């Protein structure tokens, strides 16, 4: 008795066709794709074999120093150059001047701390001399050769408090 071979089903034919296309596509890609077909930045360091990129293959001026290893950067360092010219003098005679208004009743207090003649304001500040939460600094700003401060009580209710203002002064050389 003879065994009859069944013809392949439609699903089997489609599956075989898909397999041949997939295998053929990989072979075609391997044979026809070269470096010009690959977009910049798509091949990462992990995908490169060690020793693949050599000095001859690196474009001149394409590497920045921060992309080199510490050893390579140290190899590029040369001798120190000559001493440069002296820079301009900075601040001199730095001092802090304070003004305080003793605690007394009121809803607002102001004070000004002024730099001595010939010195300029480089900074300053204000502090309330009151129990915590009783008063707050409303203004703390430079004014000409002085520092101005204003403290107010919460809800503008008269309270017993004081204020301290300081200015930081220095001779500023041009």
How would you characterize the overall build of this protein?
The chain contains two helices and six strands. The longest helix has 23 residues, at 10-32. It folds into two domains: 10-74, no CATH class; 91-172. By secondary structure, the chain is of the alpha+beta class. The mean pLDDT is 85. The strands form two sheets. Strands 1-6-3 form a three-stranded antiparallel β-sheet, with no helix packed on it. Strands 2-5-4 form a three-stranded antiparallel β-sheet, with no helix packed on it.
Topology:
Blueprint: H1 10-32, H2 70-76, E1 91-106, E2 108-114, E3 120-129, E4 135-143, E5 146-153, E6 159-172
Antiparallel strand pairs: 1-6, 2-5, 3-6, 4-5
Individual helix count:
2
The helix-strand sequence is HHEEEEEE
Helical content, roughly? Answer: 10-25%
How much of the sequence is in beta strands?
Answer: 35-45%
Output the strand order for the largest sheet. 1-6-3
What's the story with the biggest beta sheet? 3 strands, antiparallel
Q: What does this entry show, briefly?
A:
The protein has two helices and six strands, in the order H-H-E-E-E-E-E-E. It is an alpha+beta fold and 174 residues long.
């Amino acid at each position: 008795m003879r065994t009859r071979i069944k013809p392949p089903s439609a699903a089997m034919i489609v599956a075989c066709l898909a397999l041949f296309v997939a295998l053929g596509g990989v072979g075609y890609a391997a044979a026809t794709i070269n470096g010009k077909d690959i977009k910049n930045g798509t091949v990462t360091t992990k995908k490169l074999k060690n020793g693949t990129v050599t000095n001859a293959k690196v474009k001149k001026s394409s590497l920045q120093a921060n992309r080199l290893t510490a050893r390579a950067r140290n190899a590029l360092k040369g001798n120190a150059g000559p001493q440069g010219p002296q820079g301009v003098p900075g601040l001199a005679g730095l001092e802090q001047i304070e003004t305080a208004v003793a605690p007394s009743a009121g809803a607002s207090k102001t004070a000004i701390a002024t730099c001595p003649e010939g010195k300029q304001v480089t900074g300053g500040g204000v502090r309330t001399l009151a129990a915590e939460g009783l008063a707050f600094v409303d203004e703390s700003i430079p004014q000409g050769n002085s520092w101005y401060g204003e403290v107010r009580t919460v809800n503008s209710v008269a309270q017993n408090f004081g204020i301290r203002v300081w200015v930081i002064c220095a001779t500023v050389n041009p």
